[in-house]
Specification:
Helix content is 31%, strand content 22%. The protein has 19 helices and 19 strands.
């Protein structure tokens, strides 16, 4: 048996196991996926827990987005807009400190029980009390284990009221509640499985108690996740009765499955594999810009990177379009500001291009007419090492002699957090869909000591910016939405004028779908990947 056929048959058999089907024997044709089932091939080895008070891995957040409704959520038809989830409306007090939500009176959990304000209050308080990975998203609202029950409470069965401590803009508070921690769990079901005061955490890792479009049927680690449609979902039963996410870590195996019709969607194909299926009329490739940014960090604590003209010159020694049009084609698009395109308050402006002559002139003005030597830390895996090599060649044309220091991604990140780099190639993705999540790290640093209370990206690059930090602090408190939007655009322009960040690319996902698949929603973050409207 050829290796190609062996991989295909193995993947088909394991998919069949997840679906509870008997696949054909060797030598017979492999059956198409069932008409009422969506089968996705994806690497899901990052999953740790499906408890929305604990889950913060990409795949888990995606699945939770489909088995839980949130207090408010992003509109699947336009993910830049916030709309009601479990709450149908809300009002904000004149001082901006109290938000009152009216829950949908007829909404039910998958169990059939009504979704109440008590469930919503319990869900938010549970995040704070468990204090797992995503708790930081809402503990910044001034909530602690001691005060959360007083600050988050049900006034009646359909009225939830929250009070916050800081003077945050209500738009930021709403964005936080639309994240994973805003998922509403059914209190009575969860507490039936409380073990030693864990608020049902052990049980909810591998079970669901929500009111989303689907329920969790099973999760087998490094094998599959199976979801069943929720027939009582408030927006109507999903068109498909079941979704199977199959763990297929090898991109080559994913390609075989999508080509043969044994999977409806392949999520992790490489650029070469995408190109190789371009002529297959049964497969469609969908490009979806993501929120992840890739950039070079410049540590400004020592010469020559402490010189603004040197930093500006380096921006002109990167061939952005050349990389995006060649070995990164289809995977990345040029993007040079700290908030991704497609999001509210994004400044879609890319002023830098590859211009060695301009860079040389700036370096001469800065006192480096003959260039200088510098190091660049980068992951030793593709595409990072390829990007690093391209930057090395680009900068050489301006007289900047780059030595690449390759390493495992975790060692690169560790070095970055310790501020031990000169230049470093890395990525960043937002924690929620509000520009403060990025501004708070790229554009804030008021304490450049070695061990401050917080260590944002500006601190990692030794960039002390008290005045810009004041702009960031003012933006998060501005309640006028139009003014707040302009404040973030001004911040992005400020960092284009001078910063230790050479922001180069915004990631793009390329998803291969069988031509029969319709309305699979792949948004810019895992929070906004929706299966509930998908049909085939």
């Amino acid at each position: 048996m050829s290796d190609r056929l062996r991989v295909r048959l193995l993947a088909a058999v394991t998919l069949g196991t997840a679906l509870g089907l008997a696949w054909p024997s060797v030598g017979s044709a492999v059956a198409a996926t069932p008409a009422d089932t969506l089968v996705m091939a994806k690497n899901i080895d990052d999953m740790i827990s499906l408890d929305p008070a604990e889950c913060y891995e990409l795949t888990g957040v995606e699945i939770d987005s489909n088995i839980y409704d949130r207090i408010i959520r992003n509109d699947p038809h336009d993910v830049t807009k916030l709309v009601g989830g479990a709450a149908e409306s809300w009002i904000v007090s004149p001082d901006g400190k109290t938000l009152t939500f009216k829950l949908r009176p007829t909404m039910t959990f998958a169990s059939g029980s009504p979704v109440t304000a008590e469930d919503a209050a319990f869900s938010l308080a549970r995040v704070i009390k468990l204090n797992k990975n995503p708790a930081f998203l809402i503990d910044q609202l001034g909530w602690t284990k001691d005060n959360v029950d007083a600050m988050v409470k049900a006034l009646d069965p359909t009225t939830l009221q929250i009070t916050i401590g800081p003077n945050y803009s209500p738009s930021l508070v709403l964005a936080l509640l639309s994240s994973i921690v805003g998922s509403v769990v059914e209190k009575s079901v969860v507490m039936q499985h409380d073990q030693g005061g864990d608020l049902g955490n052990a049980w909810l890792k591998t079970h669901s108690a929500g009111g989303g479009a689907f329920t969790l049927k099973s999760w087998k680690a490094n094998e599959s996740v199976v979801l069943d449609a929720n027939p009582t979902y408030r927006e109507g039963a999903p068109p498909l009765k079941r979704v199977v996410i199959r763990h297929v870590p090898e991109a080559a195996a994913q390609r075989l499955l999508i080509e043969k019709g044994d999977a409806d969607i392949a999520r992790d194909l490489t650029t070469d594999q995408i190109a190789s299926i371009a002529g297959n009329k049964d497969v469609t490739v969908v490009r979806s810009p993501q929120a992840t940014l890739h950039y070079v960090g410049l540590n400004v604590k020592a010469a020559p990177l402490d010189n603004p003209k040197v930093r500006l010159a380096l921006h002109y020694l990167v061939d952005y379009d050349g990389m995006a049009g060649s070995f990164l084609k289809g995977q990345y698009q040029v993007h040079q500001t700290f908030w991704p395109s497609g999001f509210w308050a994004a400044l879609d402006k890319n002023p830098f291009n590859f211009d060695p002559a301009k860079a040389k002139s700036l370096l001469a003005e800065a006192g480096y007419p003959n260039g200088f030597d510098i190091t660049l830390d980068a992951s030793n895996t593709a595409p990072y090492i390829n990007i690093a090599q391209a930057i090395q060649a680009n900068m050489a044309q301006g007289g900047v002699r780059v030595t690449i220091i390759p390493g495992e991604q975790k060692s690169v990140i560790t070095k970055f957090r310790a501020r031990q780099h000169q230049m470093l190639l890395i990525y960043w993705g937002p924690d929620y869909m509000d520009p403060h999540t990025n501004a708070d790290s790229f554009a804030r640093n008021t304490d450049n000591s070695d061990n401050p209370p917080t260590k944002p990206l500006a601190w990692r690059n030794s960039w002390l910016i008290p005045e810009i930090s004041k702009m960031t602090e003012a933006a998060v408190e501005e309640r006028d939405l139009g003014k707040r939007e302009q404040m973030y655009k001004d911040l992005q322009q400020k960092l284009l004028d001078d910063s230790p960040f050479i922001i180069m690319f915004q990631e793009v996902k390329q998803t291969a779908e069988r031509a029969t698949v319709k309305n699979f929603i792949l948004g810019p973050t895992q929070d906004v990947v929706f299966y509930g409207m998908t049909s085939k």
